[in-house]
Design goal:
CATH topology: Four Helix Bundle (Hemerythrin (Met), subunit A)
Shape: globular
Helix content: over 70%
Order of helices and strands: HHHHEHHEHHHH
Length: 291
């Protein structure tokens, strides 16, 4: 095979995606170790690894866009990483912590719920790649359906909150059975047509008011201090925002989704080129008709 047919691999985005895969693999190993004894400790490590994978997933796409190295290879590699870190790992996590007890009462229900989440996550990634290939000229500001990293973030952060709550000698009770219901809901949201903001317009040139920056610093600092439950608040807020977004005013949408002050002309130019080609075709058709 000729070497010129080999894809050129961007270094930094690929390293971030590799970090995503490794984080997912570490999470799976910790889940298996959690079955052997120190359950809470290893599950904490697994959740931390899944959240680290979320960070790597954000960084790989951001670096690719900033360096102009977005490619089909990066898209496919990222999807393979996502199904491990955000599909398989969260499904195993909830299966071990909650769904096992359901299996004792209703045989087959636990693994079926986990499998549904995993399959819907894979379908969501496949659909994303197909849409991205069709819209290669224009980077969409939205995800169609809940993105699988956000779904994994909701599951892992809520599991973190439940483990922390249980460790403070408070009774979780039947609240833990909300996780299976949430997994089913997330499964359908991932393959739905609901638009979720991608925040792809955020870059080094993004500008906001000083109040907006101060609030952002406060939220980040508060999240670090209250790491046991604030990630759940942030991820669930993103999940709910996608559901209520159609009823949010356009002004607030621009503020929340951090849209640029001046619209990106890339898509407009691409559409303009297409319109120019169509116009040329129409002109040519008219000329041929006159002849």
């Amino acid at each position: 095979m000729s070497s010129d047919r080999e894809p050129r691999i961007p270094l930094l985005p690929t390293l971030m995606t590799a970090g995503n895969i490794l984080s997912g693999f570490v999470a799976i190993l910790q889940i298996f170790k959690g079955r052997e004894g120190e359950v809470a400790v290893h599950y904490y490590y697994a959740i931390a690894a899944i959240l680290a994978a979320c960070l790597f997933d954000v960084l790989d796409g951001r670096l690719a866009r900033l360096s102009g190295t977005e490619s089909a290879f990066g898209r496919e590699f990222d999807s393979l990483a996502d199904i491990i870190s955000f599909g398989l790992a969260p499904a195993l996590l909830v299966h071990d912590i909650v769904l096992n007890s359901i299996e004792e009462q209703y045989h087959g229900i636990g693994w079926l719920i986990a499998s549904l989440y995993l399959v819907c996550g894979a379908m969501r990634l496949a659909r994303f790649n197909c849409l991205a290939a069709m819209e290669e000229k224009c980077s969409s500001k939205f995800f169609r359906g809940c993105p699988i990293p956000a779904a994994a973030g909701v599951i892992s952060s809520l599991t973190l909150f439940l483990l922390w709550w249980d460790g403070t000698d408070r009774v979780i009770g039947n609240w833990r059975y909300g996780l299976p219901v949430l997994m089913i809901t997330l499964s359908f949201l991932m393959v739905s047509n609901i638009d979720y903001p991608s925040f792809k317009s955020v870059n080094w040139r993004t500008k906001r008011s000083i109040n907006w920056v101060l609030v952002s610093i406060f939220v980040i600092a508060f999240s670090v201090i209250n790491w046991q439950w604030m990630p759940a608040v942030l991820f669930v807020s993103y999940l709910l925002y996608g559901l209520v977004r159609p009823w949010v005013s356009r002004r607030w949408q621009r503020e929340i989704e951090i849209e640029p002050e001046q619209p990106d002309d890339t898509c407009a130019e691409a559409k303009g080129d297409d319109a120019g080609h169509h116009a040329a075709d129409d002109t040519g058709g008219e000329a041929r008709a006159n002849i």
